[in-house]
Structures
1.
Amino acid sequence: MRLYRLLSIFFLHLLAWQTILGQDYLKTLDSPEKYLEQKIARTGLGEIVIGTSSLEALNTGDNGRIFLSKMDNCGQLIWSYSYETEGYYIAFKDIAIGGDDDIFVFGSAYQGFDERIFLMKVDKAGIVRRFKLYNTGTVDHFSYNIAIEGNQIMAYGLLLDWNVQKQGFVAVFDDEANYVWGKRFAPVITGGEAIFTPDGGFLCRTGKYLYKLNSIGDLQWASISTSDVPAPVAGPIAINGGYIFEAIQNNQAFFYKLSPNGDFLWSSPKFPSINYPAAVLREGENQILAVYGMPTGDTNGLAHLRISANGDILEQAQLMTEHSFTTGEISHTWSDDGYLTISANPAIPPAPAPALRTFLLQTSLEQSANECFTWEGFSETYPNDFAPDFIPLDTAIMDLNMTLYEGNFPIERSSTSSISFRNECELSPDQSQLTVDTLLECGETWMVDLPSTDFIWLDSGRSESRELSEEGTYKASNLSCTNPIAYTFTLAREACACEVYLPNAFSPNGDGQNDQLNLFSGCNISKAKTTVYGRWGSKLLENNTTDFVWDGSSNGQAVPPGLYLVVVNYELVDEVGETQQGEVVQEVMIIK
């Protein structure tokens, strides 16, 4: 190994501090009026991926595209791209993270009056690996969600055709975005959500209708609520012993729980809420965490509560900050180290400035106390006598005929995404950058040891020693927001000589051994001209292909044994992409 440039190298004396994997921050989306609702998901490294669509495209029908941005655990932008395809208006609906931190995006695709759905697989660097268009009939683009369980991807949506009854569908794909099976069912209305259930099946909500399917899509039960309370707006959330839903009526929200068979179990006390659903997730096995908008006059605040599996409100707190909000739909995700990241979309109609319309907030509910915001406990609940009746629902369920329209559709990715975030609360210190550049000779590799197990490779999430052999840039970080340190290892290598070899003898006797003369090279030969001369200098044959082999014949007749002169003029591309030209002049013996 030969070091040719050392930009900066430090010998770190690491102190005995514990790595903090999260950081408080508050960011707003510049020009929020340009975008549809955003949703977020979290990778295994704690990074946040944000998905959204262009509102302008929806209004005009032109330049339909989706936007993806990835931020690290400290709120720093890693990359931001827009994605579009010629001839189609594509609209973002939902996002989920696969087991290898692949990003799956689900949405609608329109071409004139033709409506389709798409499933896109994007890798950690934002590069599209799969984009598949599917025909399902005419789709309703207002309600979609996806979920991932193992290597299965579940997509939920609505089918809307002017000539038939509106239908819901559940479709299952593998992790390469290939369609596996699906079911459609009726009746449904616009709006809803579907989840994987603990028994491997699916539970779908649409209006007051509930559908429970088993793991292969057979209907287990379906019901409808006869209560006067409006249909649930959030859930289902699978929790120990059943499923939790949220309902809102007259700016008062509450949660209720159904058994695995759909029987009513309990309802929680009511609490003040805006008329948008809370973002709800399971926290452990026996409680849920809900983040919601709390009315505060013309604007609203942000609050959260925890509810036990028995319906008791365990905690209620509001965000104390100098900012006011106009919170609408909320998306959130919970990290392993106890940080909650909240994405909020603007209410319709939005309140005037200076209220924040669209924001991204990351906070520790247990420890956050900074100059920008903190959480303060309070209690405001009301009695609730909600006890609905659920009766069986007469359901039509059929196979879903979903066909692949295009399995390799070209997607244009642009790094000039117009999405940008503005810091309303800058909390992160500057990151220490450590850079090492290395040049390897042909055949050598570079063994790199990270300073400690607090550091991980950002492309793998692992911290072990690593042998580098391919050219490129490799990054490692301690993922700390209080003492951030990043290593960048840039590897270049000298090109190995491209050997071109022609044997000096062969025996074209039909015995299956050494019957042909081939040109060999470890590099990619892009052009070749092969000429064979007889013992007196006469030209026996000439060929201009790169895969030419000589079987010991000329003009269809076998040549006699003896020495022949073979001349090969070639052009090849070496391992670093450079073009080389050369010539091989070789006496070749034919033996019979």
2.
Amino acid sequence: MSEVASRNLKRSAAIMLFATILVKLIGGLFKLPLASNLVLGDLGFGYFSAAYDVFTPIHYIAISGFPVVIAKLISDNLGKNNLFEARKMFILSRRMIILLSFICLFVYLTALGVIYFIFDNKINEFYSLLAISPAIIFCFISSCYRGYFEGFNNMTPAAISNIIEAFGKLCLGLGLSLISVSLNFDISVSAAFAILGVTLGSLASAIYLRLRFNKEKKDFDNSLKGIKDNKIGFKILIIALPIVLSSLTTSIMAFIDSLTVSTSGGFLNLNVNNFTSLIAEQKITENLLPTVLYGIRSKAFTLFNLVPTLTLSIAVALIPSVSKSYAEKKVSDFKENVGAVIKITSLIVLPAGFGFIAFGKRIMELLYGIGFSSEIGGIMLTVFGVASVFAGFSLSLAGILQGVGKQNIVLLNITIGVFIKILLNFILCKIESINILGAAISTASAFFVIFILHLISLFICTGKISNMGKNIIKPIIASLICILVSYFFSFINNSKTFTVLAMIIAVIVYFVALIWLKCIDESDFYLLPSSEKLIKISKKLKIIR
């Protein structure tokens, strides 16, 4: 693989990765105080999460579904030096996606009206579900322009739009919910105001992307005036459908939980006598217990979702490069791209997942204080830690398979995983001693199956993955070392201060272990700004050779 190609791949991944980290930090500043007792609490966050989990699949389509489709179509044609055809694909895709967005909004509002009628106007999440509806249009519009820029291997507009959207949620969502709480509005209304901030953030993102696209619109319009090709539009839809559906892997798990274990209780079999202290602590009636438990589950799920979201950004950045090298039949470049993605994923997924497993309860106590919320949520976060490892790898493997045109295989594997998720939710959540924990166990089990199926598919389709030892085994060893050291350190004291110190020590030990194991290459520094200076310094310090 050429040095230039390696730099382009890793810098593209770096832009999306750092943007995603920033977005998640902003998201933490939004959701952590939102879920606290000072704002929505577990009950209000349960209402918020029930609506947000319905919206999440739509959001995933916007950031990793249709953009991947458009980026793939554009990069495939660029690999064949056909700029006109690449832009033509974008025009046709945009028309189709915008039309689809209005169809989806109509179906969504119709379904919402039916649900409202069936529950006799008593569904507490109704206001939140209504407040999120305009975001369907905004997210679909954004997806068109994200895909266009990513197809030309320009990740900056997509990264900036994600940051704008996150700031919109933080400032408007948290601000509006705080105002509504201070005015003593009903908690379901306050949750709807928080959701409204999400909608306004998606609007701001769509506006930015359109303005960015307008900078080159004149030349674009002159070269593509009056394009009509229904056959190509149908072809785009055939390619798009499996990729879009498979992009919903993580969000569909949350969506299943929202349908089966949220406000109505769904599959949950609860012995109220086991939760009398929780009911007293939260000052709720027995019929609201499922919503509170779902709110606690959502706190743990929010932390879990950090890991697959980071690897999803890698997959999005990777597909144009993988698709192009595969289309050009550059075998060595393709295998190096695959190896690089596996390595980057390992470096992120393994320490984060192991950290959740080892410190689930301590992390929840650090964020939400000592209480039943942290007690139940801590156990769930430990299970979600297992799920995060398999989910992270699954999304990156799916990106590779989609890049080589195997989107139907990805969709089949995910369908099997979703079936397992639903089946286990039905079985486990009905067991009284497991109840809400069944949602986490079923998620981990589903992602494990998807990971195994994706891995088998990758071996069959592309052959051996290069440098398995450096790309996977060494990061596993480094992760285990850092977690073990920090775990023993945490026994000194149970305070929040020592929990934070244990995490800091874990990070330091992890990077030292990576250096000791010679896991870091010169090319890995292309992920960082001022990479050339860092490479020179690292060579002097013998971090790399």
3.
Amino acid sequence: MIGTRRMATTLAVIAYLPLLQAQCDRWQQRVKYTMQVSLNDQDHHFQGTAELVYTNNSPDTLREVYFHLYFNAFQPGSEMDVRSRTIKDPDERVGDRIAELAPHQIGKQEVGTFTQDRRSVALEPMGTVLKVTLAKPLFPKKSTTFAYTFTGQVPVQIRRSGRDNAEAVAYSMAQWYPKMAEYDARGWHAYPYVGREFYGVWGDYDVTLEMDSAFTIAATGVLQNSHEIGHGYPTGKKPLKRPQGNRLKWHFIANNVHDFAWAADRDFKHTMEKVPGGPDLHFFHKDIPEMETTWKELPGYMVRAFQHMDQHFGKYPWPQYSFVQGGDGGMEYPMLTLITGKRRLGSLVGVSVHESVHSWYYGVLASNEGRFPWMDEGFTEYAGSEVMQVLFPRPGDPHASAFGGYRSLVESGEHEPPSIHADHFITNKAYGATAYSFGEMFVHQLGAVVGEKVLRKGLLRYFDVCKFKHPEPVDVERVLEKESGLELDWYFDEWVNTTRTLDYGIRAVMGEADGTQIVLERLGEQLMPVDVRVVRKDGTSESYHIPLSLERGGKAPDSETFPFASLTPWQWTDPTYTFRLPMEFGAIKTIVLDPLQRQADMDRTNDTVELPTGASGFARP
């Protein structure tokens, strides 16, 4: 027999279990790479062997698989080259540079011998994609082993990856190996590489990199043989003992990641800093005097950034993270970022914060960046803005620029639905503003719907229940519905799948015998709940929240950020909404909609009404 206290505890746990569930618990494919790679720094060619164990956790029988061959994008006539030269607003980092590459400057990626469980397969190269017709079907819940060789030529650095970048970093090795494409409930995602970002299969990587011993290497994962390497890596209790010869083999292991990147340079300076209770942070930059001051200050800021993210957005799960000078701006990879390093302190911290915060959204949650770029960039921008506000406090809303970017996009006439695949936006401007500005605004604006406290708790919950599960928009929706108790499908459907815009206004204010009547109107097609603040002439004020009928409820009052009284819901089919206040008309000075400016209202001129002394009413023409 269960005792009374134990029974109560058991029942409480059972009652709480549904709160921990979310939509994210769907099947995931799995990979396990073992690769040995050798790079020749004289001709920039590399060759490798790989054994890849692929587990089909889907309910489908697979008869072919696909790999990405990203380096083939850096060849004249590639889809990336043509796209860059024909899009309305080319990325200036690419432009027509690919078309002008000489044979010794292009990128190459080729697969040689390839077997499945020791049986030969048919290969069909398709530019930046390789189709592999299997020797035998791969049934559900079964694994198979691929063994293959590959060769490549590192291109002159054009976009993210390559050699000899503008800051003279020798090698930025991202998207460098034949990478298994992801297969999920929508099938294969073997996207051609035209310059956007990535989607990968969860798995474990065991990678050995061999090159001239003068180079220092930074990589995804944890170095296993630091006692043979040195180069700033701690050797522990083992004395440094390098093998004979002028080449070194660097052995890295990374578990539960979906990509592997590395960088190498002869002049890297390597330092480390520990996050208390968290990962080791590694810093790699060119040993150049003018960079030394800012890079010396960077570790302290990044320790605080990781601590804030761990506390407010979820615990970083891996043992290390590396900040590496390289690439062409800033780009995130598992346990590592490539950033340009010749920056002032604010810029260096800013790019480092943004790229490391990607570890939570690109790294741990890992939504499909092709289909949902705003889920990666937007959430990262939101959390990064919060971190930067802690590191460099400034008055005002840290997310205000996101609303400005979204407004600029709408006013440009190039606004496209955020649900469009990242590769297929008509302009780079629309893609960028949608992924970054709209995405951050979308998250921040949710606070106006569910409440700021609920949003913060919901984002922690989202990370906790969806980590390592490739969440989609519905997963964010369901997590926040469970956290808030509200229906949010209307918010996700309208904002993600349309280009409708938001505009509410104050239509009329009229005095009555028993108080004041206020009439609001919806002028835009977009739907939202409405916050109203009424300021009296004596300086006191009262705030109200008008839920949207589709929410089937309303956000709870927040005594810290916005204490309010709830009014009856606005029926979503009604173009106007009328409410009455037990307050004399003559006592009112100002009425303001969205006083905290948490919503993307496109016309602020109709959000505020000033009632001068002696006025008998207000009606908008």
4.
Amino acid sequence: MSIQVFGLAVSRGIAIGRAVLVASSRLDVAHYFVEPQAVEPEAERLRAALAAVANELSGMQDELPEDAPAELSALLDVHLMLLRDEALYAATRQWIVERRYNAEWALSAQLEVLARQFDEMEDVYLRERKADLEQVVERVLRALDEGRRPAAERAAERAARSDPGDRPETPLILVAGDISPADMLQFKQSVFVGFVTDVGGTASHTAIVARSMDIPAVVGARDASRVVRTDDWVIVDGDGGLVILNPSPIVLEEYRYRQRQSELERERLARLRNTPAVTLDGHAISLQANIEMPDDARVALEAGAVGVGLFRSEFLFMNRDGQLPGEDEQYEAYRTAVLAMRGLPVTIRTVDVGADKPLDGLSLSELRHEHQLNPALGLRAIRWSLAEPSMFRQQLRAILRASAHGPVRILLPMVGQLSEARQALEHLARARHQLTDAGRRFGYATLGLMVEVPAAAISLRSLLPLFDFVSIGTNDLVQYTLAIDRADEAVAHLYDPWNPAVLHLLGQTIETARQAGKDVSVCGEMAGDPAFTGVLLGMGLRSFSMHPARIATVKQSILRADLGHARRAVAEVLSSDDPQGCARRLGLTALPS
């Protein structure tokens, strides 16, 4: 009988195949008491397992292929940080010493304690790190049970062994409670065509890796791993967040048709790579890419980007056990990206830590203490940089040195006040003087304002004389305008980019910048969503920056757009109580094929 399971759509597309189940290793943990004389050997067994897993993950990281998604290395860093946290070992050892629990039982007991603490955290980023802790513990439990190999390796081997002759013709869908990045590394290339997990959100590891691998995935499907049986036929609808088990022949044929159409659409969009983004009435539009790591610049260029509109430099600062990158290391990273873009502009945002991107290197207890207040409204982004002037000038010097190798633009995040902008300019001037005094070669980098808070949008006229260009971060602009944390499940449904207040602020910002003769772009999620392309064009936007994978889709919308019509229609959209419905009715969100 066909069964439908709903979850979160995190990676688009349709996958159809046979189910391969990976069960949680915590389901069969041994529980027994150890003798007093065995307490210290049991504690040593735990330490050895932690070290063995850390060595295994370090080895995997060292052997990552050059074309591996950058996210995988970053996620392995998180797991290594947890494994090397002395607090985790000490607390687990206490269960062994005081209760005389065996190592597996003690580790499971400590996991439950920490899981409850994570659940009580207000910081969304830290709450989601509970999944990292669970995955690390599962891997240590497997190491404690000698002779057992990682779950992904066993699953792939079972799949290959089940029917070797049919394997190329029988795609496989992985179904699990959760999937660690280390397990995902062990999947043989092209074995699994889709993923389904019981837990996880849009920022979970499975979601991140699935998107980077361009594989359909549904997470947060609750009981999927309990209702799916090995070898069941499974449809993963990565567009609608739906998993269908044992579909009827009619449903199976319908999804196979959709799958073929999706594949044809991808092939057709790929042919647009070298096509200039020009509207029907002849207006050229700039489509740039958002990147996290220097090597992502190559991917951006291959996707047809005409520049990097947002280099999120904070990813160079994360997962480093508190050891921040020095000036020379940052310079090499920025230089790599600049050279990879072959003369196209690279916009480097100064470090934006805080909120969902804290620096790590602290113990779990220190992290909890450090982030118990609301980080989204605290010391983050430009506020943190101004509070750490030595670090800030170090980064500015590195960026200026990289600008000698190609066009570079510096972008300041979350500026909300004129005083912050003036302080940043003073630091930039001092950084230039320091490089001159040291005889270091550097270029001229233009300076940009990132509009993310309503205060910056409202007071833009007074800020603009200090800046060369403007970039709008719509993710935070929506969040701060509506006072909605989009990662909070209780209020996420209220996070609405179509809210009239958001659209008015957006339109006002674009118009004010254009009137002042300043270049303006949008680099948030709205830029990569074709539903907003026509509206943004009508507001006067001529520069978009997005994930490289979204460039072809947005370019298609631009090629079908008429700027004159968009300009006339957007006025009606902005005056409507239902902007989304109005935009759809006027053809701004659903342009004809």
